[in-house]
Amino acid sequence: MTVYKAITNKIQLEFMHIYIYKTIANIQVLLLLSISLVVNGCGCSKPTEATSHTLKPSEIVLFLGNSNVGKSTLCNSVFQQAVFNSDVSMSFGTTLYNQEHEYQNALYIDTPGLSYKQTREKAAKEIEEALKKNSNYKIIFVVTLKSGRLRPTDIATIDTICDVIQVPFEYGLIFNKVTRGIIKAINQKGLNYYLTSFKKKPFATVILKMDYEIEDNPNFYFKPDSENRKNLLEFISKLKSVQIHESDIKPLDITKYEQRLYE
Ligand SMILES: Nc1nc2c(ncn2[C@@H]2O[C@H](COP(=O)(O)OP(=O)(O)O)[C@@H](O)[C@H]2O)c(=O)[nH]1
Ligand SMILES: [Mg+2]
C-alpha cells in the first residue's frame, strides 16, 4: 500500500514539475512576444509606414526664391496640407528659417529669400545650410512677373545662389502667379527673352497661373485636381536631380547680390 502511495505521489510530483515547466515556458513565450511587439509595432499599422520613417529620403526638392513669390504655397499644394507657413503679413517675409517636410520619400525644403536687406545675411546662411545636406537635389527657383517683367531682385537671387554651387547642375524655374494677359503675351513671344536675363539658364520652366481662390489666404493652396497642381507635380517629377556634397558649396556672397541689383 505504501509502495502504491509512494508511486502515485511520485507521479503527481512529476506532473506538477511538467506543469510548472510548461507554465514557465509559456510565460517566456509571452514575454518574448510582447518584447517583439514593442520593438516591431503591433502589426495593426501598415508595414510600409513603419519602414518609411526609418529610411532616409532619397532626394531633396529645394525651393529657392524671394519672399512672396509663393514657394510655401507651392509646397503646400504638393502636400495638400498647410504644412509650411505662408503669410504676407510679416514685414520681412514669413520665413527666416528653412522649413522642411518629407513627402513621398523626398525631403521638401522651403528657404527664405534674399531680397530683404535686414535679413539677407541670415537667409544666406539658411540657403547654404539647405545646400549642404550631401544628397541628391532637385533645385527649383520661383519668380513672379511684375507687369510682365522679371524683377532685378529675383535675377540677383538666382545668379547669386547659382554661383555658390561648384558642381555642374541643372535647375528648374517656376513662373508663378502669372495672370491671363501675361500668359497670352508669353505664348506669342516665348520665354527666351526672360531666360537670357540669367547668368545660367534654367533647364526646365513651367508657368503656373494666378489662382484667384488663394487670394492671400495663408492656408489655401491649389486644389488636388487643378491644372496648376498637375503641372507642378509633373514639373517636379521630370526635373533632373544632382548629387551635391557639402564641399561643393562655397559661401554665399551677399555683397555680390547687392552689386547685381545695380548692374
Ligand atoms: N492670389 C494668389 N495668391 C497666391 C498664390 N500663390 C501664393 N499666393 C499668396 O502669396 C503670398 C505669398 O505666398 P507664400 O507661399 O507665403 O510665398 P513665399 O514667401 O515665397 O513662401 C501668400 O499670401 C499666398 O496666399 C496664387 O496662385 N494666387
Ligand atoms: Mg515661405
From TrEMBL:
Coiled coil: none annotated. Residues 61-156 form the G domain. SUPFAM superfamilies: P-loop containing nucleoside triphosphate hydrolases. One of its GO terms (molecular function) is GTP binding. InterPro entries: GTP-bd (IPR006073), P-loop_NTPase (IPR027417). Pfam families: MMR_HSR1. It comes from the Bacteria. This is G domain-containing protein. It comes from Amoebophilus asiaticus (strain 5a2).
